[in-house]
Amino acid sequence: MKIDRNNILTILAILVFFLFVWWGSNHLTAYAVRVWEDTLIFLMLSAGYNLINGVTGQFSLEPNGFVAIGAYVTAILILTPAQKESMFIIEPMVPWLANLHMSFLPALIIGGIVTAFVGFLLGFPVFRVRGDYLAIVTLGFGLTIRVVSNNTITITNGSLGLKGLPTYTNIWWCAVWAVIAMIVIMRIVDSAFGRAMKAVRDDEDAAIAMGINTLWIKQIAFVTAAFFEGVGGGLLASLITIISPTVFTFFLTFELLIIIVVGGLGSMTGTALATVVVVWGSELLRVVEQPMNIFGLHIPGIPGMRMVVFSILLIIMMIFAREGIMGQKEFSWDWIFNKIKGKRA
Amino acid sequence: MDLTIILQQLVNGVSLGSLYGLVAIGYTMVYGVIRLINFAHGDIMMVGMYFAFTGIAMMFLPWWAAFLLSMLASALVGVIVDRVAYKPLRNASRISALITAIGVSFFLENSFLVIYGGVPKAFPIPSVFNGAINIHSVIFPNIAIITPIVAIVFLLILLFILHKTKYGMAMRALSFDIDTVRIMGINVDLVISLVFALGSFLAALGGIFWAMRYPAINPLIGIMPGLKAFAAAVLGGIGSVTGAALGGFIIGVTEILVVALFPALAGYKDAFAFLFLIFVLLFKPTGILGEDLERGRF
């Protein structure tokens, strides 16, 4: 890595970010810290999702499946054998998994690797189709994962799910992983692979004609996304401490989709911005689900109203502001300095 | 397993399959005309169920009036969805339209969740559809016999509209080339609205019969049958109405027979349709009766 102005500024920005995390972990309320943890995990998930959907242009709907795999693998690895024995009441767990136990970091990484491997295997059949077919097939994958986790009772405990996971996840785990994910993914986007991905997005046939192995390029994006979504799933599992087949539904994918659309398909910095806006926005939107009194008029809380607002927001975004906040552009230090100097970027 | 049980399961499968077929027709027609996977189509099915439920249980209409009104109202919902959400995106990329469709799907699900609540409602089954016929110790529930008949009647009506009327001709023309059709002085938006109306009408019909088969309805009930119906549309060859009906029958019968013959796999039944879908896309992307819409027609 070159030591130039931009890299130094990036490193400084990361340090400032960690300073904020350190300040936040001591001074913010437990609620705010919890929402920031969600934000950072979602940042990691949506950065991976944007790599495949936005940068490579392969519109797919699988993240909830990947997150579920990562969550299950991590959960199985961090539960103690005693906990597993007491939890698997329908059928005992397969012995070689029941006695496996490790600390959080290796469990997360193995969760990521297993998910990446599943993504790799899945890539071969699904990338034979393009466009909206890819969306449906990957959506089917997410549902299949749910069906499988419901039925492989000796591994996942079926519909009972896994309870009482140790709560290792804190804001530091989330922050460090989010930074790693952002750095790795942005480096990929900036590399020759990234340029090939954008070529595949803009015109797949032309990319093939230029000698780009499109399957290989899509696989790199897919496997990278799968790895980070798997790790994110592990972090989520240890954060919510209970997972079952119904936890990671298509709703999760929908939220991530809103984030990357709001941020701009193909822009990682846009994704970061949008994650904060959407996650915090959805917390603020809880107001519409609570009873209110307006000028003496009592309006009872309407559960589910938030999602109605969300979906209308997505439709309006798609009709009027398809580009999102950043479009396909990235925030860069050069842009700032050019602005200061009054030059055009 | 003896013959009577297999026969019974077959009837069961055909009846389930005709429901998938009815919903699949809407997918295939919309895709044929504007190349959009209408994600919200399964939810239109749910909308139809709730409208019929409202008509019978809350407005005390006779069942046939409630069913008819529900189908017409669902057709209207389909048209409104197209006009409000899809029409502004006709010239945008297909992915933008697809994301909007996902948004519409979530909007319908959640607004019905807000209106009717998440607790499943018991769908009131008119007495005509209750009961069963016993032929040589094989029991055929009335609903299992009526469903395929209704489905086939409506399929024939649809085929008549498509092939013998001017609007049907316009719909078929649209699936070849929208711009040329527009140059010919045909009101393209009106025809597209008609396609949405017909598709949603049939989806609501499928939804009502689905509700009489599984009479607990909730706002998320349309997702799974919707996806399976999409798989059926692809299996039959997307763009082909007869193919969609055929694909529906195949998926329905397979689902029931696999569960009947291998009870151990029953838990995995919701995944079959997708395995089907993946295999079809891998080995014969044009489906059974379909033409290659990307290459063959243009």
Mean pLDDT of chain A: 88
Q: Overall pLDDT of chain B, averaged? A: 87
Q: C-alpha Rg of chain A, in Å? A: 21 Å
Instruction: State the largest interface.
Output: A-B, 39 and 41 residues
Count of runs of 4 or more consecutive helical residues of chain B:
11
Distance between the termini of chain A: 24 Å
Compute the number of strand runs of chain B. 4
How does the helix and strand content of chain B classify structurally? Answer: mainly alpha
Count of DSSP strands of chain A: 2
Oligomer category = heterodimer
DSSP helix fraction of chain B: over 70%
Instruction: Give the terminus-to-terminus CA distance of chain B.
Output: 50 Å
Class by alpha and beta content of chain A: mainly alpha
Along the chain, the helix and strand elements of chain B come as: HHHHEEEHHHHEHHH
| Helix percent band of chain A | over 70%
Shape of chain B: globular
- Give a short account of the largest sheet of chain A: 2 strands, antiparallel
Number of structural units classed as domains of chain B: 1
Low-pLDDT sequence parts of chain A: none
Q: If helices are DSSP runs of H or I spanning 4 or more residues, what is the number of helices of chain A?
A: 16
Could you explain how this protein is built, in words?
- The complex is a heterodimer of chains A (345) and B (298).
- By secondary structure, chain A is mostly helical.
- In chain A, β1 (292-294) and β2 (297-299) form a beta hairpin.
- In chain A, 71% of the residues lie in helices and 2% in strands.
- Chain A has helices at 5-27, 30-55, 63-78, 81-87, 95-98, 104-126, 131-151, 153-156, 171-190, 192-202, 204-209, 214-240, 250-263, 268-284, 305-320, 333-341, and strands at 292-294, 297-299.
- Chain A has 16 helices and two strands.
- The N and C termini of chain B lie far apart (50 Å).
- With 298 residues, chain B is mainly alpha-helical.
- Chain B has helices at 3-34, 41-58, 63-86, 94-116, 142-164, 166-174, 178-183, 188-213, 223-236, 241-261, 269-283; strands at 121-122, 132-135, 138-141, 216-217.
- In chain B, 50% of the residues are buried.
- In chain B, 71% of the residues lie in helices and 4% in strands.
- In chain B, α2 (41-58) runs parallel beside α4.
- Chains A and B meet through α7, α13 and α15 of A and α4, α9 and α11 of B.
